């Protein structure tokens, strides 16, 4: 059974990517094999029509995948990788793990293995993700193009030459959706405190974040200009922004949060 892709780990991130690839039509279900030990997650993957197996040993000998994509936790990834070394003749290896450097995969698979480190985020599930990639010198142009095309089904793809920046990338776009989800939670709670029914507060918070993000993405104006367009002199927005921006309060908080994530990514790579 030939397969284009073996996806190792189909939890939050693996499933989000797989769902994006399949729904875009860039990958057919019969071109993917998923390896996932957790029964419920394996069954969820199988509902998408892919072959879902409990361990690497169950993959047919003739699978010859073009890509092996690791979407398991950084804490276990280097124990998981060796079982996939047998696909080296056909495969390039892609890791989405936070922290784990390309050199660690070269150590496990050999210096001649093609390795791509990718930092996706969960909006990939609906084609709105941000994927940042960096590859070692063993990855040829054909494979780079193939991976870029596949990842583009999940959203925006950017390449960086300096792997050292991947910890910062992880802290901004990899973890970033969680910051935005928390912002929605906080705006909802604040709306409720101001007297709105919770469902109304949630709708207002969600649609406001969605609309503002879409406007910022589609407009030619800078976010700062768009902010000023909302802010009437001495009006309601100015009152709120004096709380958020006074003493650079939110900026300092975001800087601290991103630095905490970046430092944790560095730690996970050790
Ligand atoms: N979640 C996110 O938003 C993002 C995550 N990432 C990265 O993606 C990776 C996965 O994260 P996430 O999806 O959140 O984690 P999850 O725990 O949701 O998914 C990982 C899955 O891998 C399974 N697994 C464990 N061992 C193996 C194995 N030997 N073979 C196959 N599957 C195995 C786990 O099963 P079990 O639980 O039974 O061990 C689990 O179901 C991490 O490295 C993370 O850094 C990157 C960007 C964003
Ligand atoms: O929290 C984490 O470690 C992973 C990496 C980026 C998003 N989730």
From TrEMBL:
Keywords: Amino-acid biosynthesis, Cytoplasm, NADP, Oxidoreductase, Proline biosynthesis
Pathway participation: Amino-acid biosynthesis; L-proline biosynthesis; L-proline from L-glutamate 5-semialdehyde: step 1/1
Gene3D superfamilies given in the database record: NAD(P)-binding Rossmann-like Domain (3.40.50.720), ProC C-terminal domain-like (1.10.3730.10)
InterPro entries with a match to the protein in the record: 6-PGluconate_DH-like_C_sf (IPR008927), NAD(P)-bd_dom_sf (IPR036291), P5C_Rdtase_cat_N (IPR028939), P5CR_dimer (IPR029036), Pyrroline-COOH_reductase (IPR000304)
Residue stretches making up the Pyrroline-5-carboxylate reductase catalytic N-terminal domain: 4-99
Listed Pfam families: F420_oxidored (PF03807), P5CR_dimer (PF14748)
Localization, UniProt: Cytoplasm
Protein family according to the UniProt entry: Belongs to the pyrroline-5-carboxylate reductase family.
Function as written in the Swiss-Prot or TrEMBL entry: Catalyzes the reduction of 1-pyrroline-5-carboxylate (PCA) to L-proline.
Record protein name field: Pyrroline-5-carboxylate reductase
Species whose genome carries this gene: Neoaquamicrobium sediminum
């Amino acid at each position: 059974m030939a397969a284009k892709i073996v996806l190792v780990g189909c939890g939050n991130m693996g499933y989000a990517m797989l769902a994006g690839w399949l729904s875009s039509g860039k990958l057919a279900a019969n071109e993917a094999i998923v390896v996932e030990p957790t029964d419920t997650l394996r069954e969820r993957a199988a509902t998408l029509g892919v072959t879902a197996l409990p361990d690497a040993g169950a993959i047919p000998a003739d699978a010859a995948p073009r890509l092996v994509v690791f979407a398991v936790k950084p804490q276990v990834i280097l124990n998981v990788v060796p079982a996939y070394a047998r696909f080296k003749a056909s495969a390039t290896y892609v890791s989405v793990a936070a922290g784990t450097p390309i050199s660690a995969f070269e150590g496990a698979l050999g210096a001649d293995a093609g390795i791509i480190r990718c930092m996706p985020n969960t909006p990939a599930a609906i084609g709105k993700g941000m994927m940042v990639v960096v590859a070692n010198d063993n990855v040829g142009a054909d494979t780079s193009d193939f991976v870029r095309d596949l990842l583009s089904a999940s959203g925006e793809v950017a390449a960086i030459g300096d792997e050292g920046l991947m910890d910062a990338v992880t802290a901004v776009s990899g973890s970033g959706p969680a910051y935005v989800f928390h912002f929605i939670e906080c705006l909802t709670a604040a709306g409720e405190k101001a007297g709105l029914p919770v469902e109304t507060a949630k709708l207002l918070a969600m649609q406001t974040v969605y609309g503002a993000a879409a406007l910022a993405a589609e407009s030619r104006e800078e976010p700062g200009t768009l902010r000023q367009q909302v802010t009437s002199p001495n009006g309601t927005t100015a009152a709120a922004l004096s709380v958020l921006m006074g003493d650079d309060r939110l900026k300092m908080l975001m800087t601290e949060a991103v630095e905490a994530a970046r430092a944790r990514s560095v730690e996970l790579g050790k």
